[in-house]
Amino acid sequence: MMAPKSYAGDGSYPPSYYAASRAITRTPVQLEGDVQADICVVGAGYSGLSAALHLAEQGFKIVMVEGASVGWGASGRNGGQVVNGLNASLDTIGRRYGEQTANFVGGMVQEGAGIIYDWVERYGIDCDLRRGNIYAAYTPAHMRDLEAKQALWRKHGMDDHEMLDKEAIRRHIGSTVYEGGMIDHSGGHMHPLNLALGEAKALESLGGVIYENSPVTKVDQGPDKAVVTTALGKVTANAVLVCGNAYLGNVVPELTARVMPVSTQMMATAPLGKERAEALLPTGMCVEDVRYILDYFRLSADHRLIFGGGIVYGGTDPADVIAKLRPNMDKVFPQLADIKIDYAWSGNFALSFSRVPQLGRLGDKVYFAHGYSGHGITGSHLFGRILGEAVRGDLTRFDTFAKLPWIPFPGGRMFRAQYSTLGSWWYALKDRLGI
Description:
Elements: H1 17-20, E1 33-42, H2 46-57, E2 62-65, E3 81-82, H3 90-97, H4 99-106, H5 111-122, E4 130-137, H6 140-155, E5 161-164, H7 166-169, E6 180-189, H8 192-205, E7 209-211, E8 216-221, E9 226-230, E10 233-242, H9 253-256, E11 259-269, H10 274-280, E12 286-289, E13 295-299, E14 305-313, H11 321-332, E15 341-352, E16 358-362, E17 366-370, H12 376-391, H13 396-402, H14 412-433
Parallel strand pairs: 1-2, 1-10, 2-7, 4-12, 10-17
Antiparallel strand pairs: 3-6, 4-6, 5-6, 8-9, 9-10, 11-14, 11-15, 12-13, 13-14, 16-17
Helix pairs in contact: 2-8, 2-12, 3-4, 5-12
């Protein structure tokens, strides 16, 4: 993986609440010299960690190469919300790719969350995991969309959703701005960087080796082996899994145009105290609203409100994250107008034009997964498992996704951010008009 933007090269994390409160401090080891492995994984975020841990559990010798630190990118900076499903709805997938594909996807959209819950328990990962997430609706049109979502998910065998009217949602969120909402009892939230660090520790307990501070410069494949090269060393392996996502850069040129980095912003308040925090979110569930450009928030274990939202196409950071997010937080919770913001940060996720994640293979030995489009916590864990299946020779699920056509962004690499911004304005206008 390339050296990421804003990376100091010393194993440090960008300033954030998660970096300041992480439970595990690693001693990074750089890749030096020639190393052999069964599988080399490029990128130590959720996709790479999931694939690596699934394969290590099957006895494969895994070497992971990371340009920065474990969980440095989106995996350690996200909203921490375990939200089921892909960005593209099952309805959309059915219209584009057929009902058979929609049924296939519908049968696995809760699987990623299940992987997380299983590993947290099995490996004793301390990441403040809590169950339940709420989709919050601002308008009657939003409520109709949630009712349709509940019916659609029931059709695919998922019945973990509970509708909330205006009175009921007030029992979960101490705000008057919402028309209603829906609980997904199979969702949840956690400390995302601690989850990544815990998964890395689990991988190493199974014999996996992780090299950090080792930006990848190229990935080659010959007739027998694939080779991952860094400035100071190389890994020769039977297969390479490329899981760099929004921070891969141009290391694998064939993948560069397939996704676009998009930044989202977060902030964490000063500690509120138990009583004040629970008045905001009495049942402790995380929340995201259902607008196109949405807000999302939850409580941390030390009773802070972590509040996120906003997007910048192209992956640039706004000049002032607090100025961007604070008005949104104050709209939902005006009772926090006096509260100090202790941390504010930004990070990139990888957006695919179709909003469907992409799996594929370059030649015989290089596999990739990326493009979770803001639904990466569960999607990455699922797709990491599917990458592991493919490497072991079971291509059933891998091929189903790999055969889905990917669509280039309008405007190419030079103008894709501008075109996407124009599109987002239209959807934001629809949200404001309640249509």
